[in-house]
Amino acid sequence: MDAIIFGDGGLGRAIEGALRARGDSARLIGRPATGRHAVAALGSADVVFEASRGEAVAANVEAALAAGVRRFVIGTTGWDDERSWVETLVRDAGAAAVVAPNLSLGAALFFRLVETATALYGAVDAFDPFVVEWHRRTKRDRPSGTARELVRRIAAAHPAATPDDLEVAVIRAGSSPGMHLVGFDAPGETVELRLTARDRSAYAAGALAAAEWLLRGPRPAGLHPFDPVVDELLRPPVPALA
Fold first, then answer.
1. Beta strand pairing status for 25-29 and 47-50?
2. CA-to-CA distance for 217 and 99, rounded, in angstroms?
3. Number of domains making up the chain
4. Does 135 participate in catalysis according to the annotation?
5. CB 3.0 to 4.6 Å from 18: which of 7, 69, 204, 211, for a disulfide?
């Protein structure tokens, strides 16, 4: 795989390390001095990994499309206001992108556990759902993209809750790579589900799985959630013919 990685922060470097560890080509590109990447300097790539900042996503995708890239894995958060524009750019170019606020397999399965738990506890009036998330002091978006996705899924699975009803507590302190807790509180007891990241290796592994899913394509043009990637990973292998 020949890959370009936009963003030389923690996630970008983790993806670069994972690619190089398996012998793939990886070009890590930080923020351009001019504010936009020069198309001629990008060259071609099988996949672009977007791991920069929310305000740079649209410009980075546009530059990569102009350079001929047609597969993207976007793990950056904080660009919701630009999502419709990015989706138009990708679809019009006949490209495909996997987009997720959290690319770890553990988080993807955590989302599904939360949906199941919400359906169960939501059927009982006494249990009130809530979300707590804690990230490093320097993380800019609050709540995190993962927390917003949890809220969306809880509201969809709960018979009465709406996104505006849910209480979300946000902590920005220290150097935590990410902790998300979903709780269901009743007068006599509390049930908690917790996901804690120790480092960014799980995010990098999921990013590579998303890239492999795109490369096994072709995939329909547009933005795709991480769920189809996870579904393929969970699918039992086909037995070999005797």
1. unpaired
2. 16
3. 2
4. yes
5. 204
